[in-house]
Protein 1
Amino acid sequence: MAERGASSGGGSRRGGFSGGRGSSGGRPSPGGRARKPARDEARNAAYDLLRAVDERDAYANLLMPRLLRERGLKGRDAALATELAYGTLRGLGGYDAIIAMCGDREPDPAVLDALRLGAHQLLKMRVPPHAAVGTTVDLVRLRIGTGASRFANAVLRKIASRTLDEWIAIVAPPAGSDLVGHLAIAHSHPRWIVSAFRDALGRDAEETADLLAADNARPVVTLVARPGRSSVEELEEAGAEPGRYSPYAAYLPEGDPGQILAVAETRAAVQDEASQLVALALTRVPVDGPDDRWLDMCAGPGGKAGLLDAIATHGDLAAGKSGEAAFAFAGGARMLAADVQYHRARLVWQTTRQAAVITADGTEPAWRPGSFDRVMLDAPCTGLGALRRRPEARWRRDPASVAELGALQRHLLGTALDSLRPGGVAAYVTCSPHLAETQVVVADVLRRRDDVEQLDARAFLPGIDGLGEGPHAQFWPHRHGTDAMFLALLRRRA
Ligand SMILES: C[S@@+](CC[C@H](N)C(=O)[O-])C[C@H]1O[C@@H](n2cnc3c(N)ncnc32)[C@H](O)[C@@H]1O
C-alpha cells in the first residue's frame, strides 16, 4: 500500500520539485521572501469552471465557451483550458480516490478542485511534474491562501511519485474480486453506471472497459449537412471530412464550427452521427399510402428536427450514397415539432425552416390520435449515451433518475403510437443504452398492445455492423465512434 497522509501543516520539503514556471510551490526564495506566484490564465479558467460546476451545478460545455471569451483565451491557451477542465471533470472519480490516499485530511471543496486539476496534469496530461505541481500550488496560494498551498504542495508531490496505472493498482479494488468497482475507479465512472453499461453489453468485461475508455476520450466534432440546404461537399470546403456512416455527416478535425457559413445559417449543424442515422432510419421505412404528415414529439433543441425537416421538405437526397437504402423519401411532407418547454421549442423554430413548431406536452397531446404517418419520439432520458460530450454529467445522474424517467418514457411512447395512423411508423430513440430506458420500455409498452409490430431497425441502417442482436439497434462510442443512441422502429398495424 502507498504511504498515507501528507501533513496538512507544513508540507514535506523532500522530493525533487522545483515548481512550474519558476514556482517553488510555497518554498521561500533564497532571499527569504516568498516568491510572488504567477497567475496562469488557462489554469485559472479551468479552475473557475470546476468551481462553478461544483458550487452552482453549471453545465461545463455551456460555461466554458463563455469563460474563454471573457478571458480572451484563444488557440492553444483555449485548448489547454478546455482539456484541463473537461479532463479533470471526467477523471475525478479516480483522482479523488488517489487524493484521499495522499492527504491526512479531507480537503475543502475549493482545495479539492485545485488538487483534482493538479492530479489530472500529473497523471493524464504530458505536463512536466514540476510545472504541474508548481502552477497548481501557485493557483492555490493566489486563490485560497498560503496554508492551503503548502498542503496542496505536499499532496501533489505524493501523487507525482507514481503513474496513474500504479495508483489505480493501489486504490481500486482488484478486478478479480470486484470487477465493477475496479472499472469504476480505473475509468472514473460511478459504479451504478458501470453496472448498467456492463448489462447492456451482455456482461462482457473487455467491451465494458473499452466503452468506459471511449467515454473519457474527446469526441470528434461531427456536422450534418441538411439535405437541400447544404452538402457534405460544402462542409469539406470548410475543412471537414466526409463521415463514415451517414451520407449527411462530416467530421471537423479542428476549428470552431460556428465559423462555418452553412452552420451559422442553420443549413448545417453540429450533430452526432448516430443522431443523424436514427432520424434517417425513420424516414427510410417504406410506408403504404399517404406519407406527408410527420411528428417530432420531443423535438427540442432541434437536432433531429432539423434533419427531419430538411428531408421532409427536399427528400433523402443522398440515399444512393449510403449503400442499399430500402426506400428514399422523395420530399413533400410537413412536420409538426413539439416540446414541452417553450425555450426548447423556440430553438427548434430557429433551426427548422418548414416545420410547424408548438410548445406541447406529449402526455396530453395537442393533436388528434391517428394523425401522423411518421412519428419521432426522442424521449427524455438520462443521457448516459453522451457522457463523453458532457464531462460532468456522469456525476449528476443517479439510479433514481432512471426510474423517474421510465414512467414518462412509457407514457410518451404510448402517445407516439396512438398518434400514428394505421400503417404509420414510429421511432423510439434514447441517448442512453441503459436497458431500463431502452428495451424494457419498448417491451413493456408492446406487451399491452396488439396493434403494433416491431421492425428490425438494423435493416434501415445498412452497412453498419455491431448494432446488436435486434430487432432494435444500439450504437456505441467504442464501436462506432458515435454516442450510444438506441433505436426501436414500431409500425402500427394496418
Ligand atoms: C432527448 S431531448 C430531445 C432531443 C431532440 N430530439 C434533438 O435531437 O435535439 C428530450 C426532449 O423532450 C422534452 N420533453 C420532456 N418531457 C416532455 C413531454 N412530456 N412532452 C414533450 N416534450 C418533452 C424535453 O424538453 C427535451 O427537449
Protein 2
Amino acid sequence: MSSPYEILGIDPDADEQTLVDAYRKRVKEAHPDHGGSREEFQTVKEAYEAIRDGEADAGATARASQSESPTPSRSPKRARESTTSGDSSAATAPESSQDRPEQTVTVEYLNYEVLDDYGWEVADDDLFEKAGRAELDYEDYGKFVVKNNETLLEAAENRGFAWPFACRGGACTNCAVAIVDGEMPPPVGHILPDEMIEKGIRLSCLAAPVTEHTQVVYNVKHMPGVEELLLSPSRFEKAHSD
Ligand code: FES
C-alpha cells in the first residue's frame, strides 16, 4: 500500500512548493488522456489533498489507496490560499469557503465567445461597459450572486448556467475564467502556471471571488496560454465543454 508521499514521489518533509510541483506533474501523468486512468487520477488527487490538509497518516493513506470512485469527484469545499499571488509557498493560513466572511459577492460575467464575435479583447478597459450596451443574451452576459459555500462554477450552475467543466479537480482547465476586476484567490493544487495566475486566469471549479463585485470572462479555455494546458473532457463521465 503506497503512502500519499510515495504516490506523489516526494519526501514527508517536502515543502509546499515541492508538493504543488509534484502534484501538477503526477496529475498530468495520471490523466486518462496521458496514459493514466480515472482511478489513478483520483488516487493522486486524494494523496495530494491528504498531505495538503495534514491528514497523510495511516488513515489517509488507506483512503487514498483504496478509493474505488471511477470518476474524479466534484470538488469539495476546499481550503483556499489567503493570498492572490501565484506563490503557494506564501499560503500559511488556508481559508475555506465557509470561513469567508459573510458578504454578498456579485459576479458580472461575459462569455469569451462574445469577444470573438465583436472583436473585443479581455484587456479592453471598457469591456464590460460595451457588453452592458450590447443587449447580449443572459447566458452570455449578466450578473449573479456567489454564496459563501460555493465555488464560482458551482454558483453558475446553481443559478442555472452551463459553464464549461470536465475534471472538477483543477487539472483540465476547461473551467478557466479570466478576472477583469476583483479578486479570486487561487487555491493550492491547480494546474495553472504562475504566469497564468498573474494574468488573472483562474479555475472556476476550485476558486471563488472574494470581492464584493467581480468581473470575469468565462469560457476562456481556448485563450492563448490556456488552450495549451487544456485536457480533453471526453474521458470524464460528467463534463460540459461547449
Ligand atoms: S473542471 Fe477541470 S480544472 Fe476545473
